[in-house]
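Marked as duplicate of an earlier ticket. Keeping the data here for the record.
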Amino acid sequence: MELTPGKRLQTARELMGISRSDFAEMFGIRYLRLVTIESDRGRMSVDDLEPIARRYPELIHWLVLSEPLSAEKLHTSSNQHIRKLADNLETHGLPEV
């Protein structure tokens, strides 16, 4: 079974080692809104996604369209969070649903 967009967002955040409260603050998303998205009780809006896409453009196609992630490609990112995600992706893989 495929991860939902909310679960993909949660997975990315966790693989980057960012707490939910820090992530919400980084992107100007209310904490409860982020909880709602990650628990699939609400959909990500363009307003939710836009700041995330600006900071992490490498993830946008996976978050929105569920296109495959390549740890090899993510390792070349200049963003430390993306490189950490790549390391954790290689070590732990994506969670099963």
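See parent ticket for discussion. The chain has a mean pLDDT of 94.
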